From TrEMBL:
Keywords, ordered alphabetically: NAD, Oxidoreductase
Coiled-coil features, chain-numbered ranges: none
Xref: PANTHER family: UDP-GLUCOSE 6-DEHYDROGENASE TUAD (PTHR43750:SF3)
Pathway(s) the chain acts in: Nucleotide-sugar biosynthesis; UDP-alpha-D-glucuronate biosynthesis; UDP-alpha-D-glucuronate from UDP-alpha-D-glucose: step 1/1
Identification of the protein by name: UDP-glucose 6-dehydrogenase
């Protein structure tokens, strides 16, 4: 068993690129592979094809040492690697809740025939439970007989905007393995992470388990997080009719350490490339396994989330009277701050609903404009907050970027036609905005 296994990363999207760069940063030799030639060219040239704080610099540093390389050749990957990480996407299938597994299949089937010696194929993508067994079968069918390729499952928990941090300093590692060889291989693969933990006086707990548990950990964690957000958003719905303030309610229940104060921010809800698709794929898989009833609450979680988007539109309509023809300045397009990701973004969804109701919408986002323009080409885009809200009848804040949280309501008040603001993320100080003459509406704040 190599002390410092050579690693390949199959799929250089968000997860793969971050993983490849972070592992190289820890001193491993890493080869990233993708079928998308343009992605590989960019990465090899030191450019990260998405926005992630700190990743660009780390990529260039590790390219310069020669530890990190990129290729489109599976043959080269097979020849190079001891451990092959599968980091391809598992998007929602069109017209269904289920995950589309074609990229996992194609990565494994493309690599396996080229393998010439014992190696470990490690799944990292978020997948339906049972996938690791299926990957094992694919490997048995496509790898040369007798070389003893093994499979392991090692889910990734990184958050966008903190991806490098979460990879280098994970809360925990989960190894789904069938043999001591696979476990030791993973332990050596993550030695750099353990050592960093020791150096920083921080423990990195490891859960060594079977395939299905490792696969489930990931979707269970994301389902829990989505449920926590929808729970507080359900409390927001009740607060709105009861005359309560959900932000104070969240603060009060959050002091109970069993509940905790994280992920209790009420607003326009969750989006992104993970939580929405993961809770849907999980339900689809549970149905297949005959336990659909166990996860029926996740459909409720999804519906609460969708209703909050509609609520933000309602609040805007309430402020302006008639949406048709109203000029609305939207601040925020990404699904969360410090990201350029607009996948399933509540901000884009709300903007679309406003535009469909006839409002004239102009959007500003510090990083997400290019992606938003592609996702929603029918509205106008501005290059600053001030330009987005000029002459607006109402301002709608949909992503809690630092620059919006700290915006000066007095200065912004001079640019708009009517001082009306919908705070879709409860990220502004109502007292401050009201003092500057704004009519303020938050989420779950009667
Ligand atoms: C998530 C998980 O956190 C991560 O562990 C997993 O690996 C991938 O999915 P990410 O999608 O990057 O990460 O975003 P996250 O920070 O979890 O936020 C998800 C969404 O929930 C965002 O749209 C965010 O605005 C929203 N959210 C989060 C809330 O509405 N309220 C909260 O209290 C917290």
């Amino acid at each position: 068993i190599p002390q410092r296994p050579r690693l390949t990363v199959l799929g250089t999207g968000y997860l793969g690129a971050t993983h490849a760069v972070s592992m190289a940063e820890l001193g491993y030799e890493v080869l990233g592979i993708d079928v998308d030639e343009s992605k590989i060219t960019k990465l090899a040239d030191g450019q990260v094809p998405f926005h992630e704080p700190g990743l660009d610099e780390m990529l260039r540093r590790n390219l310069a040492t020669g530890r990190l390389r990129f290729t489109t050749s599976y043959a080269e990957a097979a020849d190079f690697g001891d451990v092959h990480f599968v980091c391809v996407g598992t998007p929602q299938k069109a017209g269904s809740l289920a995950a589309d597994m074609r990229y996992v299949e194609s990565a494994v089937v493309s690599l396996a025939p080229h393998l010439t010696r014992k190696a470990l194929i490690v799944g990292k993508s978020t997948v339906p439970v049972g996938t690791a067994e299926w990957v094992e079968e694919l490997v048995a069918q496509h790898a040369p007989a007798g070389i003893g390729v093994e499979v392991a499952w090692n889910p990734e928990f990184l958050r966008e905007g903190f991806a490098v941090e979460d990879t280098l300093r994970p809360d925990r590692l989960v190894f789904g393995v069938k043999s001591d060889w696979a476990r030791e291989m993973l332990e050596n693969t993550y030695k750099g992470v353990y050592e960093l933990g020791v150096a920083e006086d921080r423990e990195v707990p490891t859960v060594v388990t079977d395939f299905p548990t490792a696969e489930l950990v990931k979707v269970a964690a994301n389902s829990y997080l989505a449920t926590k957000i929808s729970f507080i958003n359900a409390m927001a719905e009740v607060s709105e009719v009861a005359g309560a303030d959900v932000t104070q309610l969240a603060r009060a229940i959050g002091y109970d350490v069993r509940i905790g104060n994280k992920f209790l921010r009420a607003g326009v809800g969750f989006g992104g490339g993970c939580l929405p698709k993961d809770i849907r794929a999980f339900q689809a898989r549970a149905e297949e396994l005959g336990v659909g009833h166990a996860l029926r609450f996740l459909s409720e979680v999804d519906q609460i989330n969708t209703r909050r988007r509609e609520k933000a539109v309602e609040l805007t309509a309430e402020l302006v009277g008639e949406l048709a023809g109203a000029r609305i300045g939207v601040l925020g397009a990404t699904f969360k701050p410090n990201s350029d990701d607009v996948r399933d973004s509540p901000a884009v969804a709300v903007t679309k609903l406003l535009a469909e109701a006839g409002a004239q919408v102009t959007v500003y986002d510090p990083q997400g404009i290019d992606n938003a323009r592609r996702a929603l080409p029918t509205v106008a885009y501005a290059t600053s907050s001030v330009d987005a809200i000029r002459d607006a009848d109402a301002v709608v804040v949909l992503t809690e970027w630092e620059e919006f949280r700290h915006a000066d309501p007095v200065a912004l008040g001079k640019v708009v036609t009517h001082r009306r603001v919908v705070d879709g993320r409860n990220c502004l100080d109502p007292a401050e905005w009201r003092a500057a003459g704004w009519e303020y509406r938050g989420m779950g704040r009667a």
